[in-house]
Structure formats: C-alpha cells, structure tokens
Design brief:
It comes from Nocardia camponoti. This is DUF998 domain-containing protein. This protein is an all-alpha fold. The protein contains 6 helices and no strands.
C-alpha cells in the first residue's frame, strides 16, 4: 500500500515534467516547418524531409539539432513514464517504443543523407527513394516504426484500461491521419510518378508531432488523476 501511495505521489510530481518534455519533443519534431521560413530552396511537394539536414545543406545544424533535442527529451520522459505510472502491458510497450523512437531520431540526425557516388556505392535505382541504401534509411524506418508501435500501444491501452481519454478521441484521429499518409507513400512507391510524396511525408511527420503533443496532454491529465 505504501508503494502504491509513493508511486501516486511520484506520478503527481513528475507528470507535469514528463508532459512538458513530450510536448516539447512534439514541437521540436515539427521544426521542418522552418523550411517555409528559411531559404532552403526545397520543393515540399516532391522532396523528403531528410534532405533538410542532409550533408552539406546550409541549415543542417538547425534541423539536426531539433531532431537530437526531440530524442533527448523523449528518452528520459519515456523512462520516467515507465517507472512512475502503473505498469500495464500496453502502456509498457508504448513507453519502451517511445524510448526507441527517441534513440532512432538522434541516430537519424547523426547519420544524415549524403550524395550517392555510383562509382563507390551500390546506389538504389528507385526514383522515389534513391537513398534507401544508406544507414539513414534504416534509422528513419526504425523511428517511424517505433512511434507507430507507441501510438498503437497507447491507443489500445486507452480503450482497454479506460484511461487517457484524449488518446481515445483526438489521438486516434491523428493516428488514422498518419497511417493514411504512410499508406499513401507505400502505394505510391510502386507506381510510376511522384504522387506528391513530399506532402505525404509532411502529413505523416506532422501527425507524429501532433500525436506527441496529445500524449503529453494525456500524461498531464493522468498525473492529476493519481490524486485519487
């Protein structure tokens, strides 16, 4: 009983900190919107966000730093969430997946895209994803997969445990939007033409950021409920 009370007090104290970190990570992960302010000369319709912090890009430090900060905020926040909130199967999966997303995002920034030299590397022939052979493709895939697992796990937890109401409502809507954009990208990769893949990815990443903010709000509300 004393342990339960202690965990409840810890959750009440740490919930605002965890929430701020997760919300902050959501905003940092949306730093790509600066492409509309900074003179980066990208085509949002047909280029991928990874090109913003590719090697040699003029504002690489800005976008890479935002990604690193996202990970640095999420890893300790997810660890604290795992330790102070009641451990249940799906929330545990969610917190662990969120830590993996944070780590993958940091790796993503540290392993940027670089120009492919066919004389040195086995370059991909795909017009839509020409950099798939690079380590950056692996870290990006790991990041997307991790946050998808986290979103699904927390959504299932919200319904199954009858908590995290905002995740059952707005969070699910954001999840569906992100999933739709992902399906758009996967289908378009097997078709001729570009099909505005840049827009699809921006919707996908925007949904990730919105979901992180939603999770942060859910954490804050959940922490207040620990008073009961």
């Amino acid at each position: 009983m004393d342990n339960v009370a202690a965990n409840g007090r810890a959750a009440r104290v740490l919930a605002p900190v965890i929430a701020c970190a997760v919300v902050g990570a959501g905003f940092c992960y949306s730093a790509w919107v600066l492409e509309f302010v900074l003179p980066v000369n990208t085509d949002p319709v047909n280029t991928f966000l990874s090109e913003l912090d590719a090697e040699g890009k003029p504002y690489r430090d800005v976008f890479a730093s935002a990604d690193k900060l996202t990970g640095l905020l999420l890893i300790p926040a997810a660890l604290c969430g795992l330790l102070v909130f009641p451990r249940r199967r799906f929330t545990t999966v969610g917190w662990v997946a969120l830590m993996a997303f944070g780590a993958a995002t940091i790796a993503d920034a540290m392993l940027p895209l670089h120009d492919c030299d066919p004389a040195v590397e086995n370059c991909s022939t795909s017009e839509l994803f020409p950099q798939l052979h690079q380590p950056h493709a692996f870290t990006s895939s790991l990041a997307v997969t991790s946050i998808a697992v986290a979103a699904f796990a927390f959504s299932v937890a919200a319904f199954r445990y009858h908590r995290w109401r905002i995740l059952r409502e707005f969070g699910v809507v954001v999840l569906v939007v992100g999933l739709s954009a992902t399906i758009w990208m996967l289908i378009a990769d097997n078709l001729t033409g570009n099909y505005a893949l840049g827009i699809a990815q921006r919707i996908q990443v925007g949904a990730m950021s919105a979901w992180l903010v939603t999770l942060g709000v859910a954490v804050l509300i959940e922490g207040r409920k620990q008073t009961t």
